[in-house]
Amino acid sequence: MPDILKGYVELVYDLNNNPSYRFFEALLYNSEFYNDSLQSISMWITENDDRPFVLSTPRVDDENTLHLEIPFSHNFIDAVSRMKREGGFVSKVRSLIDLDKKQEKVFNTFFTETPPPPYEKYEGDKVRMRYFGHACILIETKDVSVLVDPLVSYYGYQHEVSRFSDMDLPDTIDYVLITHNHQDHILFETLLPLRHKIKNVIVPGSNTGSLQDPSLKLMFKQIGFNQVIELREMESVEMTDAIITGIPFIGEHSDLNIQSKLCYHMQIGEFKILFVADSCNIESRLYDHIHKIVGDVDLIFLGMECDGAPLTWLYGPLLTEDLSREKDSSRRLAGSNYERGKALVKTFHPKEVYVYAMGMEPWLKFISSIKYTDESNPIIASNKLVAYCEDQGLIAERLFGEKELLYNSTLDEVDIEPILNNRFGPFLTSDLHV
Ligand SMILES: [Fe+2]
Ligand SMILES: [Fe+2]
């Protein structure tokens, strides 16, 4: 073993006598190997959704972009993000960072004296759910707010696909739920500007110490999230009027042993929701076992990106040996197809089924690079599932853009009537900062 890693790694055998190792991840974050001077943020005013693809595109400074060499944990990010809604002194937030003359000029263009549209906290006695695009859903009661897989358009502008943006988020988010460690479910661009309003982050526990499955708890703590709760399968977190339980998430990780993936079961009063994310229901008996414990649910949110990228698209750099093309393309990041989705519906008997997490919204192009046609497998599969559910008398839809749903949470009002309310109208702000 290279000398440099000594004391940070334990060498082991598995029960088949294959050699393996584990890292002491918590120590590595306090070592020379965690170098937060490599982190930086870049800010610019945008008027459209066109962005270079996130994983492969170098960022080059230009005259309208402010590139700040600051770590993700820096309090400037909280201070400036807070000013999107609360007025403040530019000089105060400016004093938190070093800027040269050129940068200062760009920085000053970010601010306005026009206040944003006011946000009205939900005060009703129902459960309000808002779909922000992809797998991001905000669940609010008058007592608690929960944001699943935050991926929020951080700007709004007039577009044929209307959207909720960060302006539609409450001032306090009690819990953020993270389903798994793929870049369309954990996006720093959304998470860091929301950090000042997030009270708790719930993440799935990992393998601890393996390269392909880093600890999300340690990662979030390191970048400045103070209250991070690690949840394991079938463990629950109780909040004011809801219980959230981690549910096994299977597959969709190229058959690698990655455990930091969880579906979530959320119960508010008698109302039960299952967020399945990208779990690929390859063995439906898993969810039969789970059904025996949690019972039927009212709503299922299911991702159906059933083609999926090949293993090397995401995990290639971690492999020590080349993988044949055949193996690479058979080990994919694929979610549930029609049959697997249908099996989930048959198991949990939901009243409503929403296909989500399809990467289709125009503001996601820079992370998903997906371009579907009517002939694409995920579209065919999800159309079939929606049709199947409708045949069964269920409400079903593939979500796109934005959606608001309202539900009763009490037993004596079991007639769940979703109020569908696609919101229209231009957003008042098209700039990045107030
Ligand atoms: Fe995924
Ligand atoms: Fe996904």
Features:
434 residues, alpha/beta, Metallo-beta-lactamase, Chain A, seven-stranded mixed sheet, globular, disordered C terminus, binds fe (ii) ion
Strand order of the largest sheet: 10-9-8-7-6-5-18
CATH homolog superfamily of the domain at 127-413: Ribonuclease Z/Hydroxyacylglutathione hydrolase-like
Name of the CATH first level of the domain at 127-413: Alpha Beta
Output the structural class: alpha/beta
- Proportion in β-strands: 15-25%
| Average pLDDT rating | 91
CATH architecture of the domain at 127-413: 4-Layer Sandwich
What summary fits the major beta sheet?
Answer: 7 strands, mixed
Q: What is the tally of helical segments? A: 12
CATH topology grouping of the domain at 127-413: Metallo-beta-lactamase, Chain A
End-to-end gap: 52 Å
Radius of gyration: 22 Å
Looking at the structure, what is the overall shape? globular
Explain the overall architecture.
The chain is of the alpha/beta class and 434 residues long. It has a domain of 287 residues: Ribonuclease Z/Hydroxyacylglutathione hydrolase-like (Metallo-beta-lactamase, Chain A). 21% of the residues lie in helices and 21% in strands. Strands 10-9-8-7-6-5-18 form a 7-stranded mixed β-sheet, with helices on one face. A 7-stranded mixed β-sheet has the order 11-12-13-14-15-16-17, covered by helices on one side. A hairpin with a 2-residue loop joins strand 11 and strand 12. The radius of gyration is 22 Å and the shape is globular. The C terminus is likely disordered. One fe (ii) ion binds next to loops.
